[in-house]
Amino acid sequence: MPNPYISTAFIISALSSSIALANEKITQTQEDSIQLQEVVVTGSRRAISTPLQSHSPVDVVTASQLQATGATTVAKALTQLSPSASLPTTPAGGFAASTPPSIALRGLAGDQTLVLVNGKRRHTSSYFTRQAYAGGRGAAVVDLSLIPISAVKRIEILRDGAAAQYGSDAVAGVVNIILKDQDSGGGVNYSFGGYEKGDGEQQQLSGWKGFSLPNDGFATLAFDLGKHESANNTNPDNRLFYNPNVTNPYADYQYNENNSPLRNWKFGAPKVKDQFNLLANAELPLDDNRKIYAFATYGERTSVGENFAELPSNTTLLNRSEYYLKRYPDGRIPTTQVDVQDYALTAGYKQGSKDDQGELDIFANYGRNKNSSTQFEGINPSYGPDSPSSYFVGDNIAEQINAGVDFTKNIENTIFHSPVTFAAGLAYRWDKYEQVAGDRIAWTRGPFYNPSQTPGVGIPEIYAGITGEDQHSVDREVYGIYLDLETDVTEKLNAGVAIRAEDYSDFGSTANGKISAKYDINPKFSVRGSASTGYRAPSTVQLGYSAFSVQTQQFADGWRDVQQRTLLPGSEAAQRLGGKDLEPEKTNNLSLGFVFQPWKNTSLTFDLYQIDIDDRILLSDNITGTAVTNALAGTPYSNIGNVAFFNNLLDTRTRGLELTAKHRLDLNEYGDILLSLGYSQNKTRITASRDAQTITGDTITSTTIATRNTRALIEEGTPKNKLTLGASWRLGDWSVQPAVRRYDEFTTRNATDPKKDQTYGEQWIADLDIGYDANKILPGLKFNVGANNLFNSFPERSADSSVGGIVKYSFNSPEGANGAYYYAQIGYDF
What we know:
This protein has 830 residues and is mainly β. The chain contains twelve helices and 37 strands. It is found in: Cell outer membrane.
């Protein structure tokens, strides 16, 4: 394996050994209340003074807007503020404890949006979710819950394809988190809240402090720590239970609330404890022309999620041993604990300025995310009556190194109306994904295994596991080069072009480009648009994930335990089933819109877009049947009866529109109000699908690989449109900030029966935050009270009666599955 550290040594050596935690300080113009005057650094190599000057739609979210949402994570706050962002809030159970859903733009998957911190690529989580919700299934995303809101200066959201500018993953857009860069001051804030129904209590303590460094440098530290209890959104479990006190122990028996501890088992938001995030951001000028910078993050947390309760009814006892019955006579609730540890460091050196000799930026970063899982309330009956009920299931570890040299210069000329902003650079990236096997008791058969006994003894009762066979690592290297040009061609026409070429060690070379332009018809009205090609490389998590579980299936000759396995893409077993090595998604992105500023305090933008994705990366459904058994017969994989694997068998097209409007209303002695409106609408459809051919000549159809419900996640899993309305009113020491969101209908499909499809109706959500600056009591003291989902709105209930009808709401419901959330905050700025 090429050593990534050696590959980046020439960059690291350029950094001074005295590099402290530092970062580029971005100069920001005076922010007015309508936020039309921001220095925007995302989407353009020139630092434009307002997002309305951009060729592509850019949203700027300030720190005060984030705080006013009452949200404790960046992803949740952005979902409340951006009409283009989607984030299902109802994923539950053990999988939900692994990785929180990340931000998803324009109805696409969460890993099709690139996340930057201070303009530098952020590493992803080491795990993906297998839960069936739009934007999440199969996606290894950036865990935004690890970045303290208190550390954020602003967030810029570029809603346009940008692979030619920033590289892989920028299919739907880019989220750039700009960190605080203060050399003095600070603040601390405590938040307490819970759901109206009495659960989900949350507590969070956060703060930040700025320090001065020599030569007008700065160091800003920020942190948050907290916990929140689980929240339950299930119906009582009215399934039939095993009754050991009757002559026929398999007789149907209805437990009631008094004699079944499992009747009200929880399947809602997981419990989070021991959460701690720390961030440092600093810059140290060496002289008037040179500076070093760096920023670092560290985060950890423990999440505990309850899975589906397993009840000893007559339909499940057939595959339980005597040891299982002794351990769990009334059934059990398998529980998954996930411990996350994450850290990252970016360091760099800058020299010069764009308007003089040019600005040189040399940087490197390293990020690592470790996801460790432990199973509770488990048992491996083949190890007998003393089999442990808890065991380590395995580690998932993702690492990434990025290094680069960027050069930017404004070149004076006599051809165009303004200097040409010239940018060029070299980039290097190393990705690695590693799996570490869990305890042997989770995936091996013990001394009490007896395959002749019925029911079969030795079924490892595990949630999911990494076996000794699965333990491995994959890595890759990426070398890239880019060129970016932008200028005012005439007084009214600004245009830009970007080209990026990259070479991947695992699937070759790719080259992509983007052209964009903005034409000012008059000072108040402009037309803008872009066309680009792009790609998204498979993440190393998708390339390297493989895991094992055991499921019991009934055959003609009786019940047998069979392995369920997620196969490595391109592995021998996957190839026998028609699987192939993963390829990058190839994209074409078109955008056309306008910007209208009829008055000084009013702005309106409207954009249409189309995103074509070929070879879309998809996690297949669990595949069973004769095609699987025939293909694997006579091989070491013959005991595998249920498989899933990543593939490139679908193409999609997404079309949509986005509208934003802002207006500041001056009420004189009654203060002023900032009004905002956002609207997005999109539709994705599958434009092509391909079958897989097994080694024995059987066909596994694309509708088996991606069943009706999986296709619905892509085509109908997000609301058809989303409307956001907001107002911010400040008068003296008081502030009032109401917000309203409307989600249109979405649809889920049954895997096999169209009669069980369900279309969920629209939902309205209202928020309110009321703040008071108690400066008369103590300068800097402030209080806030508020509510998310003020009027306790719930999604439409699911008609799916599987698992006893316990689950109330679809995993795709965008908000409100736990009802109203009320909170109170006390803060102190100094």
